[in-house]
Amino acid sequence: MINKVLAALLLLAALCSPVAAETTIVFATDATWPPMEFVNDQKQVVGYSIDFMTAAGKEAGFKPVFKNTAWDGIFAGLASKKYDAIVSSVSITEERKKAMDFSEPYYTVRQALIVGKASTAKSLADLKGQKVGGQIGTTGYFAIKAVAGVEAKSYDEVGLAMEDLNVGRIAAVVCDDPVAANYAIDKYKDNLKIASVIETGEAENYGVAVNKGSAETLALIDKGIKAVKAKGLDKELKKKWIGQ
Does residue 6 sit in the same domain as residue 104? Predict the structure, then answer.
């Protein structure tokens, strides 16, 4: 009898105990990179990356929280553990992998050259002696710096570079192709165009960055990314945000 009562009490305790709290992962994002991550008219952080990681959280059982963070300090903030991860169109590079770990890739990108409608330039080599803008610390800016004779002009935000190009202060801008399309085919479609895609010979992939040793966080993020891809949810998000 005592054993039955004890068993009943244990079962009741199990039923009444609080459900284990869902893991929260705080993601830093520089919300100045439409359509991947940006602030909409309602002052909400939205975009492809935001929806992708929200879907990944549902699949893997974590709650994503997004913290709008300026690009110029985003990696230092990760190192000082102000947040758990970065989802901000961060290309996976060998140099960056020395300082942080990366998730499975979640988007493949190429660098695009944006110029004024009247420009005849087809490549960075055609712009020697001229100013070409890019967001500092991005692979687009590194591509400009790699071409001898081109004057690289850095910006804290890619939108500021596009504004300068739109009014003729610089000759071109280099940035990721979905962002280039957002500005050249939408916002400044009357004045700007995509001159070419810069072929580097290697695939450039976005990944989520975490501090080295963050194995549990990385495992959850990877689980979510794989599930999103397996279910084809990434294709739906591309149609929504990028029109592909």
Answer: yes
| Amino acid making up residue 51 | D
Which residues, in sequence order, are CB contacts of 65 under 8 Å at separation 6+? 24, 25, 26, 27
Q: Tell me, what CATH number does 42's domain have?
A: 3.40.190.10
The whole model's pTM is what? Answer: 0.85
By 3-state DSSP, what share of the chain in percent is helix, strand and coil, each rounded to 5? 40, 25, 35
Half-sphere exposure of 112 (CA within 13 A, CB side): 19
Question: Rounded to whole angstroms, how far apart are CA atoms 10 and 28?
Answer: 42
Altogether, the residues listed in the chain come to a count of 244
Same domain assignment for residues 159 and 233:
no
Tokens representing residue 129 in the block: 């002696």
pLDDT at position 4 over 60: no
Tokens of 49: 């990356």
- Residue range(s) defining the domain that contains residue 90: 2-108+205-241
Tally the C-alpha atoms within 13 A of residue 206's C-alpha that lie toward its C-beta: 23
- Tens of pLDDT along 192-207? 999 999 887 778 999 9
| Close Cβ partners of 119 (under 8 Å, ≥ 6 residues apart) | 171, 172, 193, 195
Neighbour order of strands in the sheet with 45-46: 32-33, 37-39, 45-46
